[in-house]
Design a protein that fits this description.
By secondary structure, this protein is an all-alpha fold. 80% of the residues lie in helices and 0% in strands. α1 packs across α2.
């Protein structure tokens, strides 16, 4: 039982650190990695490529959520709901 609680806490800590890491580093990774590859002749690295794709997904998701919630604010949150 105690081991299960410790593992649960460990996964929560890892998940939280993963969120914070990508919250602050998604834009530098998305914008900086192509500059490193194209302008500075940085050697390709599969790990950085995977991180870049995931960061690009997170940027797209952020933009989608921003427009989605902006649209809900304009109509008072009741757009598309039937009364």
């Amino acid at each position: 039982m105690i081991k299960k609680i410790k593992n649960s806490r460990l996964f929560k800590d890892l998940y939280g650190s993963w969120i914070l890491f990508f919250h602050y580093l998604k834009w530098p990774i998305v914008l900086g990695l192509p500059v490193l590859y194209l302008d500075l002749d940085y050697p390709h690295n599969i790990v950085m490529d995977i991180l870049w794709v995931y960061s690009l997904y997170l940027v797209g998701e952020s933009i989608y959520r921003m427009y989605k919630y902006r649209g809900l604010k304009k109509c008072g949150g009741s757009c598309g709901t039937k009364h």
